[in-house]
Write a structure and sequence with these properties.
The structure holds 2 protein chains of 2 kinds. Chain A is an alpha+beta fold. Chain A has 4 helices and 8 strands; from the N terminus they run ββααββββββαα. The two termini of chain A are 21 Å apart. By secondary structure, chain B is of the alpha+beta class. In chain B, a hairpin with a 2-residue loop joins strand 2 and strand 3.
Chain lengths: 166, 116
């Protein structure tokens, strides 16, 4: 069972997502630490990710690309800022250029992930903090139009209460 | 449904700046059903008519409202389409995380119980 709540803070450009998994914190931690597991969920279904580097130590960096339906390969990078296994992971996530390295002048987002044991399961909280709306748009350009289209449908139903939710 | 999401970065900045104020968000809510005149709006806030007009002008620059002159009154109408685009940004990221959570659940369902 996965319980999800999310909180969108438009003023502080922060997105908080809470999910619960029927798995131990150690197992959930593995999907972040093991690049072969990480690449099975980091990209949207239509844009699967491939991690070519994943230095999972404080100060370590990752390189990845995603493969879109048209063969496009948007690139991204991570920098690990804090690790407290299996409880907390802080990392920066940014847009990468063709060489895989950070694009100069484009700030990364800050992400904070925490795990806590709840009964026999694990609660995972991820907080993503954006610098500004320009950055949000740039990162959204990384093959997430699919998510955009679905999101538009959701907002539609919010704005017209009479319309049933999909 | 096809939605044109081509906003310039400047457009998006204006929208978020406009939305980052409680009074302006309240104006949007009040003007969403059939519009509201600036003078009626100004009765709801402890500020001058001119101050409310300034808030409306910020919303207008962000294309979140339009003004229509009706006799001596200025009627403010909330532009739902722009509001929708602004909300779409955070919603898109939320959607991405929902997909990620689903995929993590799949991975954990397969690997749980196996030695890692």
């Amino acid at each position: 069972m996965t319980v999800i709540s999310s909180q969108k803070d438009a003023e502080n450009l922060t997105l908080t997502i809470v999910a619960e998994f029927d798995a131990t914190p150690e197992h959930v931690w593995e999907v972040w630490e093991d690049p072969r597991k990480l690449e099975r969920w980091w990209g949207p279904p239509t844009f699967p990710a491939t991690f070519t580097r994943h230095d999972f130590v404080v100060g370590g960096e990752s390189r990845y690309f995603m493969t879109g339906p048209e063969g496009e390969t948007p690139r991204g990078w991570w920098r690990i800022d804090a690790i407290d296994r299996p409880r907390r992971l802080d990392f920066a996530n940014g847009l990468a250029g063709d060489d895989g390295g950070p694009v100069p002048g484009v700030e990364p987002t800050s992400a904070y992930m925490t795990l806590e044991a709840v009964g026999s399961g694990t609660r995972m909280t991820t907080v993503t903090r954006f610098v500004d709306v320009e950055q949000m748009e740039l990162l959204l350009g990384m093959g997430m139009q699919e998510g955009m289209a679905q999101a538009i449908g959701q907002v539609d139903s919010l704005l017209s209460p009479s319309r049933s939710r999909a | 449904m096809v939605v044109d999401c081509a906003l310039t970065e400047q457009d998006v900045d204006r929208i978020f700046q406009a939305l980052a104020d409680q009074t302006r968000r309240d104006i949007l809510r009040r003007a969403i059903q059939g519009g509201e005149s600036v003078s009626v709006l100004s009765h709801h806030y402890e500020m001058s008519f001119a101050a409310v007009q300034k808030h409306v002008a910020v919303l207008e620059r962000a294309a979140l409202v339009t003004k229509e002159r009706r006799g001596r009154e200025q009627i403010v109408h909330t532009q739902r389409a722009t509001l929708r685009r602004a909300m779409t940004l955070l919603d898109a990221y939320e959607q991405l995380w929902m997909q990620r959570i689903d995929q993590i659940t799949d991975i954990l369902t397969i690997t749980e119980g196996e030695p890692t």
